[in-house]
Amino acid sequence: MNYKHLYYFWMVARIGGVVRASHRLHITPQTLSGQIKLLEQRFGGALFVREGRHIRLTEAGRIAADYADDIFAKGLELDAAVRESLRATHALSRPPSSSPLRPQSHPVAHPDAAPLMRPLSNDATRTPGFGHLTLVSRRD
């Protein structure tokens, strides 16, 4: 199973529409629909019923969405546990610094993980701590 296809399906199911999910995922609606069709082919049936411009989950789609909820929740737990373990290991193995200035690291969440960390809504607010990192280059 392709987990990216499952993730795309899951996002559409949670958000409730291909166009809105495509905006959140930064891909075209056509690409998103194509990826979901590949997942439906993999399963051998429809996960959504298309009704004009609206979609709703089929029974198989509801089952897949429930499993996807669990899969992606476990993925977040895995990420947090591994990062915490690495931070603890790194803190124990680092010698004390004689410099008063210590470099600070600021973890940046992967943009695809941001939708998993906040409740879905129709507003355009962002979750604190998540966003887009913009690099600016200046030539003198």
Automatic annotation (TrEMBL):
Superkingdom, taxonomy of origin: Bacteria
Biased composition (Low complexity): 92-103
Region (Disordered): 89-140
Keywords: Activator
Pfam families found in the cross-reference section: HTH_1
Domain HTH lysR-type: 1-58
Molecular-function GO terms, alphabetical: DNA-binding transcription factor activity
GO biological process, one term: regulation of DNA-templated transcription initiation
InterPro entries to which the protein is assigned, alphabetical: LysR_HTH_N (IPR000847), WH-like_DNA-bd_sf (IPR036388), WH_DNA-bd_sf (IPR036390)
Entry-linked Gene3D superfamilies: Winged helix-like DNA-binding domain superfamily/Winged helix DNA-binding domain
Protein name: LysR family transcriptional regulator
Native species: Pararobbsia silviterrae
